[in-house]
TrEMBL record, chains A, B:
InterPro entries: CBS_dom, CBS_dom_sf, SLC41_membr_dom, SLC41_membr_dom_sf. The chain crosses the membrane at residues 169-187, 241-265, 277-301, 313-336. It is a multi-pass membrane protein. GO terms for molecular function: monoatomic cation transmembrane transporter activity. It is found in: Membrane. Gene3D superfamilies: CBS-domain, SLC41 divalent cation transporters, integral membrane domain. Belongs to the SLC41A transporter family. It comes from Lacunisphaera limnophila. Keywords: CBS domain, Magnesium, Membrane, Transmembrane, Transmembrane helix, Transport. GO terms for cellular component: membrane. Residues 21-83, 85-141 form the CBS domain. This is Magnesium transporter MgtE. PROSITE patterns: CBS.
Length: 337, 337
């Protein structure tokens, strides 16, 4: 009689899947066993390893049901296991990504779950707490992944390894920054004439970047927790676009007032009213685009099969930098030059 | 005989503590019970609720030990529970923050944990998977918290509530952006003479911001997973400062080359060699400060009793904006004006 099913190698499954967390099931019994026989076997096995459930399989090792220690305690010694076992138990598949497994088990709270292949053959078990533990460690890598830190980097990663992990993304970020600089460069003549515009460039860029990162963070959380499902994406996109618009308008008023006082104080050649109107308009436009980008960047990464968090903040700020400074200097050039 | 201990109200404990996740323990027995008596009680209780362990308490409801269903199955019917119960079981305290509980349970993987007060009185039980489930949901809020999204905001939070949550932080971010703008404003005269400097402002700001966010993300992860312990903070600070220096130097070379070609192409009045040296130096200086800020911002927030993630990205980019653009324009002014 099998005590374990066919041997498996956890490392033959892709990273971040249930297969990687599998252990061998300890107590695997045929359904014709009596309670007394099962207790005898449990007695032997219990000296070797801890386990929570007994798994009932047929000759082909197809999972038929689950029996708890309490079942063994409370049923007649002569009863057959298949007479009272829990049939059609909830099972996981080894190829499930951790996120998917977390979503399926979050309302069950079993100490462990059987893992079966598509024919129902019992491959192993996974402890519930391991799913969520791995998941917590996994999710804690997200803020880093957004700015180009590898998921495996931790506080105690050696210096050279950290440098190797992070540096390529910083060079990539620099390339994207050159794009934003190129946009500013297009309007060098305008800045040359109205130098106060240069002072407000970091305000536009910083503000639209932060607005976009808010939308990005909520999108990523939705993807992580399984709340941002296909079909609900458009509705969420509309909400974030509207939020960008509303936040842009309200923040644009403050920023416009800032420009008004600064330009009045500096006695600029251009009317402070016009300058503050340009700040307001470009803030509304760029925050609207920030909201849209905050949703589209992770969804696009996901669509191309990438982790939706990877470098998402770098892609996002490229879009928000180009849009915000492009709008600002573009409107100024059209209006004033 | 008590089946449950003194009634408790989970909502009387602060949010994100173990107390909030407590349930009443089902099987609570005195130690003098025999296995046969305990099995009889388990038989009654099992019809009402699911439970994993029996808890053994004295007259004052102080937890004495834990008995598993397997223990009941495998011991003599006449044996007293206190003869074989597991003494001094691992317990949690209701006031433990979830992070602390996660750190203590991560290598245990028990289906549930008893929760006791400081006298050892059994207050309730907490399922292991609930700790990690809450933790996963909690950690998934971190990228949002960094840019001013409330921890409770999710994809389906209504529009007005999202606006109310996020908007105050955006106005706050604008105030900090004004500080950065003020620094640029100090050097308006320099920009007026050498307008190419304005083109490279977003490069310096974007690059040092992303470098700092990498350090910030790894710091926050260390705090979340309990790896960044007091005493190891200085060592980590030195590492991140050195990483900032190294990344700043390597990225500074690329950025300096970018400035060299741009200035040569634009035929600027100032030597392209000098301009690219200024880009290089300010990149090294500001990325060094980014690394330091990425560690100091969350540690400072924590020291003041705040969540180390809260608005951390906003504080960080204020520091990196001011430092990077201040260095860049400051060095240019000292060298060229």
């Amino acid at each position: 009689m099998n005590q374990t099913t066919a041997p498996f190698r956890a490392d033959s499954y892709p990273e971040h899947t249930i297969g990687r967390l599998m252990e061998n099931p300890v107590a695997v019994f045929p359904g014709h066993l009596s309670v007394a026989e099962a207790v005898e076997r449990v007695r032997e096995l219990a000296t070797k390893r801890l386990f929570t459930y007994c798994y009932i399989v047929d000759e082909a090792e197809i999972l038929q049901g689950v029996v708890t220690m309490r079942d063994l305690l409370l049923h007649d010694r002569e009863a057959r296991l298949d007479a009272f076992m829990l049939r059609n138990p909830f099972v996981l598949r080894p190829e499930y990504p951790l996120m998917e497994a977390m979503r399926q088990t979050v309302n069950r709270h079993y100490p462990s779950y059987p893992v079966c292949d598509d024919r129902g053959m019992l491959l192993g078990i996974v402890r519930g707490s391991r799913i969520f533990e791995e998941q917590a460690v996994e999710i804690s890598a997200q803020p880093g992944a957004m700015v180009g830190v590898e998921r495996e980097e931790r506080v105690n990663t050696p210096f050279l390894r950290s440098l190797k992990f992070r540096h390529p993304w910083l060079q990539f970020n620099l390339l994207t920054a050159f794009i934003a600089a190129g946009v500013v460069g297009l309007f060098e003549g305008t800045i040359d004439q109205i130098v106060v515009l240069a002072v407000f460039l970091p305000v536009l860029a910083g503000q639209s970047g932060n607005t976009g990162c808010q939308a990005l963070a909520v999108s990523l959380r939705g993807l992580t927790l399984g709340e941002l499902k296909p079909g609900r994406e458009n509705q969420f996109l509309v909400k974030e676009a509207a939020l960008g618009l509303a936040n842009g308008a309200l923040v644009g008023i403050t920023a416009g007032l800032g420009m008004f006082f600064y330009a009045t104080w500096q006695q600029t050649a251009v009317s402070p009213y016009v300058l503050s109107a340009i700040v307001f308009l470009s803030m509304v436009g760029s925050c609207f685009l920030s909201g849209v980008s905050g949703v589209m960047v992770p969804l696009t990464l996901k669509k191309f099969g990438a982790d939706p968090a990877t470098a998402s903040s770098i892609f996002l700020t490229t879009a928000t930098d180009v849009a915000s400074m492009g709008f600002f200097l573009g409107i100024a050039t059209l209006w004033l030059m």
